[in-house]
Amino acid sequence: MSSDRGIMGFMTSDMTARMLRLLSLLQTRREWSGADLAGRLGVTVRTVRRDIDRLRELGYPVDSARGHAGGYRLASGTDLPPLLLDDDEAVAITVALRTATGSGLTGIEESALRALAKLEQVLPQRLRGQVTALQSALAGIVWEDRGPRADPALLATLAVACRDHEIVTFDYTARHGTTTPRRAEPCHLVDSGGLWYLLAHDSERDDWRLFRLDRIADVTPTGRRVPPRPVPGGDPAAFVAGRLSSAPTRYRAVATVHAPAGHVRAHTPGLATRLKPIDDTTCRVDASDDHLPRIARTLAGLDTDYTLDADPAVLDHLRRTAHRTLGATRWT
């Protein structure tokens, strides 16, 4: 049975607070004896057995062990049952999900955003202040020169649109400063080197587009949902990486690294399609970007010698950075 049937079951008049408490207990421990559950709930073991049978009727896979006392555990099923969280657990999970959206862990950001959107939609008002206060305390350090950052509210709105396959409209400012209205089907949110991108199908241009979130404004859900649209190649991250590697940038910086591509990839994560092998002992890293400090960080992450072909503005920035570093480390 699906979890939807379980949710509907909770709406029936015979579902009591005791049943909710029983399900909550089953979700907190691997196995419970019937006597332990009866003691926690203040009922008899026979009542526990009846309540367990009722949960099974609602679709919850509760296994039981034989014996005088009996033992119960919530087994893995075909569907994820609704989780029952106390206040502390709800706050902890919400903060953890918000933190995960900026963690840089490959593949987790979009899933965390979808889960966060679901949880915050049902979070009681009395807990939202705790979440906000705790998140503010955890996010007290903000590094300068990280470049533009995405608005968390915008991330959440677009995550919901991606989840629901809902068309949105927004204003988008291109890299040369022109702002145009857009109408698109959001599909995926992708983090690349601290910059968030929306991968969407542009309705008016009938083509896939990448939109930097810091250039998106006035997002409006239209209420129109469409069938899921498969991303070319089937891998959203690879598709975005390919588009970014071929996109024009403000500053050019290409390093010829005197080490095998495998070595550089292992010691400098996040290069993706910007790393290309030249031969068995040399590779090329394209560090071109619109943001000079990001170029410097990419090059600083290389752990071997390289030669650099870069624009004068990049070279000037690197020289200034190097002089500051030398000044700070000079022997007195």
Q: What descriptors fit this protein?
A:
332 residues, five-stranded antiparallel sheet, four-stranded antiparallel sheet, 12 helices, disordered N terminus
Description:
- It is a single chain.
- Helix content is 42%, strand content 22%.
- It is α+β, with helices and mostly antiparallel strands.
- The chain has a five-stranded antiparallel beta sheet with strand order 7-6-5-4-8.
- 21% of the residues are buried.
Whole-angstrom Rg:
26 Å
Helix amount: 40-55%
Instruction: Describe the largest sheet.
Output: 5 strands, antiparallel
**Residue ranges: pLDDT <50 for 5 or more in a row?**
1-15, 137-146
Distance between the termini: 74 Å
User: Strand-residue fraction?
Assistant: 15-25%
Shape, principal axes of CA atoms = elongated
Structural class: alpha+beta
Q: Strand order across the biggest sheet?
A: 7-6-5-4-8
Mean pLDDT: 78
Helix count from the secondary structure assignment: 12
Number of strands: 12
Provide the succession of SSEs: HHEHHEEHHHHEEEEEHEHEEHEH
Helices and strands, with pairings:
Elements: H1 3-10, H2 17-26, E1 32-33, H3 34-41, H4 45-57, E2 62-65, E3 71-74, H5 87-100, H6 109-122, H7 125-138, H8 152-164, E4 166-173, E5 179-192, E6 195-202, E7 207-212, E8 216-225, H9 236-246, E9 253-257, H10 261-267, E10 275-277, E11 283-286, H11 292-300, E12 306-310, H12 312-329
